[in-house]
Design goal:
alpha+beta, disordered N terminus, 7-stranded mixed sheet, Nucleotidyltransferase, domain 5, 24 helices, disordered C terminus
């Protein structure tokens, strides 16, 4: 069979023994495209005769037109496919392409079932008229009269060239779509699909690589067409969304909750896997939630929920495609996540870390009232940096924030500054004494004893002091001092006061150190999970079945990362723990991340004991134990820590949080690896 696509399918002409050539001239209802304004074609010559070709050597020899292939006339071939392939190759060399138009005179005794096969130039006939639109298109046919016919006679296929001339400019033969399709053999398709499964495999990169390897011309559009064709083939005539739900139902490891609207369109799709649930059972204390975008063709936000293992690696808990980001949307997600928790014997998390999404915070307080909310300090600091640079009343030249904000931020800041100047001028006109007050205020600010520099960087340093203060009293004192030193920056102070100071207990150090979050203060792990997921997507508008495959690939990557680190830690010890007697019994039973945390506290307590001459009744804030203590273990307190430091007794293994003892975990997710690689 031919690799060429028929431009137009015609009905079979039964019993026809001869044929009449169609009108070879320009269409009587449409002027030549070369005569139309803005046409990419050269000015047309006089209309061609309808009965015979024009023997105009200057026309045929013009370098702007495809070269003539008169030598093809009268050639014979043993099969139609061989003849078509040869004519197509010669046409490509002459900088045009051929397409099959129709087959005529049906005869069952002839190979292929037809006596005649008509071919024509890829620019033959005229494009159908389309409705007016804003889209400009120049990819139109121009009624090229070049055509030929294959006729079966006495066991051979004879090619007859009916018209030899073209009426359009030539194009590089290897770049014409019809010729590119001819070169798309199985090897090219297989290579394209192989590269498409690679990380960040963009169509343009694949096209360049395949063109170089296969010595054929492949464009990014060809790559996308091959992908789409393979997708349709693999879906077995189902839509991508139908395949997505079918895969969720078929996968025995999958747990799914969803809601459809009245038109059977997905509104919410919450899903996880049993392997994720098993890891979740071992690390239930802290969950991080964040939405990511540009992952699917429906532009639905994708909520990803993650946690942290005892090896300090990230694991995914669940995903949810949402139609919106309002309180009702988050309430549905958390409610159905709760049903999964109770169905599989899990526990509601102690701490939920999110960005500053008020709708999510409200939904969390309604569905999980006993869980502690914590705001991502990274997102907060990012917003504060931007707003200080934007609202700073003065120059940013030479400051760190000035280099971060760039030209775009400077324009925004200049606009705000212009507005502030207009408002300030209006106030000064209405109250002449206000200018004197401002001058006095600036003078008094310069006279006070400053703790921070009087610039935008100093303002940011002051805010960092407020956030990272170890106690609430210290944080309050730092905030009061900041308001005094930067009282001329009223816009910044008002922003911080109304937005973050009233919610300081959700992210400040003095508050987060009082809850069991294992030192996690941001959703950076979830952001990394977003990046890992998108690395498996070739574009930002993936279909839902492709998105599901990418999620499964991400899970495999997380599992491999965990086991690599687990095997690495089983094979080596931290030198300081090996040399310290009290830690020897815990070697290869507690993660290196937990060891490093304990060693840090060990040195702090050791130095404190040396300074206090061995006294054991030292004051202890117990903040470290509250962050890392084992759930329900009364021995995890400051008094016990000081006692074992003073007596040099080994710490009880039960006093170490289960979260930090991955080698104790016997869930299905870890069971196989633990059995195959026993501990030393």
């Amino acid at each position: 069979m031919s690799n060429y696509t028929n431009i137009e399918e015609h009905g079979v002409v039964d019993g026809a023994s001869s044929f009449v050539l169609e009108d070879d001239g320009f269409s009587p209802v449409s002027a030549p495209l070369s005569d139309q304004p803005g046409s990419p074609f050269p000015p047309s010559s006089p209309p061609l005769a309808q009965s015979s070709p024009v023997d105009d050597n200057s026309y045929l020899d013009d370098n702007s037109y495809p070269r003539n292939v008169d030598s093809l006339d009268g050639l014979t071939f043993s099969s139609y496919d061989d003849g078509e392939a040869y004519i197509a190759q010669r046409a490509e060399e002459a900088d045009f392409a051929i397409v099959k138009r129709r087959s005529r005179n049906r005869c069952l005794t002839i190979p292929g079932g037809y006596r005649y096969h008509d071919i024509e130039c890829y620019m033959a006939r005229f494009s159908e008229s389309k409705a007016q639109s804003d889209r400009h298109s120049t990819a139109v046919r121009c009624g090229c009269p070049w055509k030929g016919t294959f006729q079966y006679c006495d066991g051979l296929w004879k090619f007859t060239l009916k018209h030899r001339e073209h009426n359009h400019v030539k194009q590089k033969g290897s770049e014409i779509p019809a010729n590119r399709r001819r070169h798309r053999d199985m090897a090219v398709r297989a290579r394209v699909m192989e590269l498409s499964r690679a990380f960040r495999a963009r169509a343009v990169d694949i096209a360049k690589q395949v063109s170089k390897e296969m010595n054929v011309t492949v464009t990014p559009k060809d790559v996308q067409n091959i992908r789409d064709a393979e997708g349709v083939k693999s879906r077995e005539n189902f839509t991508a969304t139908q395949c997505f739900f079918r895969e969720l139902r078929r996968d025995e490891d999958c747990i799914v909750e969803y809601k459809l609207d009245e038109r059977n369109r997905p509104v919410y799709v919450l899903f996880t896997f049993k392997s994720c649930v098993e890891v979740w059972k071992e690390n239930p204390e802290v969950l991080m939630m964040d939405n990511t975008y540009k992952t699917n063709c429906f532009e639905l936000p994708l909520m990803e929920i993650t946690g942290s293992t005892g090896l300090n690696t990230t694991f995914s808990v669940a995903w949810c495609l949402m139609s919106g980001e309002k309180v009702d949307d988050y309430r549905w997600v958390l409610s159905h996540l709760t049903s999964i928790i109770f169905t599989h014997g899990l526990s509601v998390p102690d701490v939920v870390i999110t960005d500053f999404d008020k709708a999510l915070l409200r939904a969390r307080s309604e569905v999980w009232p006993n869980a502690t909310s914590q705001l991502c300090v990274w997102h907060i600091q990012k917003n504060v940096r931007f707003n200080i640079a934007k609202k700073w009343d003065g120059s940013l030249e030479g400051t760190y924030l000035g280099s971060l904000i760039g030209e775009r931020g400077s324009q925004i800041r200049d606009d705000d500054a212009a507005g502030n100047q207009r408002r300030s001028a209006a106030r000064t006109q209405s109250n002449p004494s206000s200018s004197n007050d401002l001058t006095a205020s600036a003078r008094s600010t310069a006279d006070i004893s400053r703790r921070w520099e009087n610039d935008a960087d100093g303002c940011l340093d002051a805010w960092n002091t407020v956030v990272h203060a170890s106690t609430k009293d210290e944080s309050d004192a730092a905030w009061d001092q900041m308001k005094i030193e930067f009282r001329t920056q009223k816009a910044i102070l008002d922003y911080l006061d109304s937005t973050y100071i009233v919610r300081r207990d959700l992210f400040a150090d003095y508050a987060t150190k009082q809850i069991q979050n294992f030192g996690i203060q941001s959703t950076s792990r979830t952001e990394s999970a977003h990046a890992a997921l998108k690395s498996h997507l070739s574009n930002s508008r993936a279909s839902l079945d492709v998105l599901l495959r990418a999620i499964k690939d991400t899970l495999t990557q997380q599992r491999d990362t965990y086991f690599r680190r687990l095997n690495a830690e089983r094979g080596k010890d931290i030198v300081e723990c090996r040399d310290t007697p009290i830690f020897r019994d815990l070697r290869r039973k507690v993660s290196h991340a937990a060891f490093k945390t304990m060693l840090e506290q060990w040195h702090i307590a050791k130095e404190a004991l040396e300074r206090s001459s061995g006294a054991v009744n030292m004051a202890c804030t117990e903040t470290f134990m509250r962050q890392h203590e084992s759930r329900g273990d009364p021995s995890s307190n400051g008094a016990h820590a000081l006692a074992f430091m003073e007596s040099r007794a080994p710490p009880r293994r039960s006093s170490i949080a289960q979260h930090s003892r991955p080698c104790d975990q016997t869930s299905a997710w870890y069971e196989k690896e633990t059995r195959e690689t026993p501990l030393a």
